[in-house]
Each structure stands twice: as structure tokens, then as C-alpha cells.
């Protein structure tokens, strides 16, 4: 099991979520909790497809840090 960094953004009345380590894998939700649930499902589905197609599963490599400015 991998642990991927996920970025959540407020987008108007919704939330969007994506993982920089899995290009093209995105999700939305009317709340942050729904966006989190949806991105977990999207990542699982994406990885299942990669495995099924015999393609490599990306290794988590992104990190985050808050910078004071």
C-alpha cells in the first residue's frame, strides 16, 4: 500500500483534490470530506487500472512544507 500526497483546494462552492504523483487523477466534492472520499476512490481505481494493464505504479515522491514569508 502506498501513501500519496493529496492537495485539496477550495473551488467556489466545491472542493477539488489531486495527487502530484499521479498525473490526471483528480476528484471533486461538495465538501472537503466528500472530495477526500472521492480522491481515495479515484486513486484506487487508477492504480487498479495500471496493475491490470501491466504498467508501473508510481512511487510516492512529493512532499509539502509551509514556508513563512
Helices and strands in order:
Layout: E1 7-11, E2 14-18, E3 26-29, H1 32-52
Antiparallel strand pairs: 1-2, 2-3
Helix count from the secondary structure assignment: 1
- Morphology call: flat
Average predicted confidence as pLDDT: 95
Strand segment tally: 3
Helical content class: 25-40%
Strand fraction: 15-25%
Report the structural category.
alpha+beta
Give the ordered list of helices and strands. Answer: EEEH
Adjacency order of strands in the biggest sheet? 1-2-3
Characterize the largest beta sheet: strand count, sense, and whether it forms a barrel: 3 strands, antiparallel
Query: Gap between N and C termini, in Å?
Result: 36 Å
Low-confidence stretches: none
Radius of gyration: 13 Å
Commentary on this structure:
Helix content is 30%, strand content 20%. It is an alpha+beta fold and 69 residues long. The termini are far apart.
Keywords:
single chain; 69 residues; alpha+beta; 3-stranded antiparallel β-sheet; 1 helix; flat
Short overview:
The chain has 69 residues and is of the alpha+beta class. It has one helix at 32-52, and strands at residues 7-11, 14-18, 26-29.
Amino acid at each position: 500500500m502506498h501513501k500519496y500526497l493529496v492537495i485539496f483546494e477550495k473551488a467556489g462552492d466545491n472542493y477539488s483534490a489531486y495527487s502530484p504523483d499521479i498525473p490526471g487523477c483528480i476528484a471533486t466534492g461538495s465538501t472537503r470530506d466528500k472530495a477526500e472520499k472521492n480522491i481515495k476512490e479515484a486513486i484506487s481505481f487508477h492504480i487498479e487500472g495500471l496493475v491490470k494493464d501491466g504498467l508501473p505504479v508510481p512511487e510516492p515522491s512529493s512532499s509539502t512544507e509551509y514556508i513563512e514569508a
